[in-house]
């Protein structure tokens, strides 16, 4: 699988996440958490990964990047965003394994 050029990916992220040209494409482009309302976790995941040095992060790296940007999320007793992210991560890995075992037609 060939990945698209970085410029194409950055343009896609800017367009789909409404990031203006004067802002970097990373977690700092998202608004602060206010009144308990946070940006969608999927946006945080995409920008945490894209904003990293190598454009790749481990699950722990994504947690850390999000908690560095949003310290209030780190202090929560219950962390539903981490549960969501972990489930998403596991499902993605299982899909890749199924695809490798059964081919791309497996549903």
Walk me through what this model shows.
This protein is mostly helical and 107 residues long. It has a domain at 6-75: Arc Repressor Mutant, subunit A. It has helices spanning 6-17, 41-50, 59-69, 71-74, 80-102. Helix 2 (41-50) packs across helix 3 (59-69). It is globular. The relative contact order is 0.10. The mean pLDDT is 85.
The biggest sheet amounts to:
none
Give the overall shape.
globular
Number of strands: 0
The number of helical runs is 5
Summary keywords:
single chain, mainly alpha, Arc Repressor Mutant, subunit A, 107 residues, 56% helix, 5 helices
Secondary-structure blueprint:
Elements: H1 6-17, H2 41-50, H3 59-69, H4 71-74, H5 80-102
Q: In short, what is this structure?
A:
The chain is mainly alpha-helical and 107 residues long. The chain has helices at residues 6-17, 41-50, 59-69, 71-74, 80-102.
């Amino acid at each position: 699988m060939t990945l698209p050029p970085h410029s194409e990916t950055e343009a896609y992220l800017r367009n789909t996440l409404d990031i203006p040209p004067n802002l970097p494409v990373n977690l700092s482009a998202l608004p602060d958490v206010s009144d308990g309302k946070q940006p969608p976790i999927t946006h945080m995941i995409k920008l945490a990964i894209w904003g990293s040095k190598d454009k790749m992060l481990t699950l722990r790296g994504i947690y850390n990047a999000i908690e560095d940007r949003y310290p209030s999320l780190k202090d929560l007793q219950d962390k539903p965003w981490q549960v969501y992210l972990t489930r998403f991560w596991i499902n993605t890995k299982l899909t890749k394994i199924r695809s490798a075992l059964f081919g791309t037609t497996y549903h």
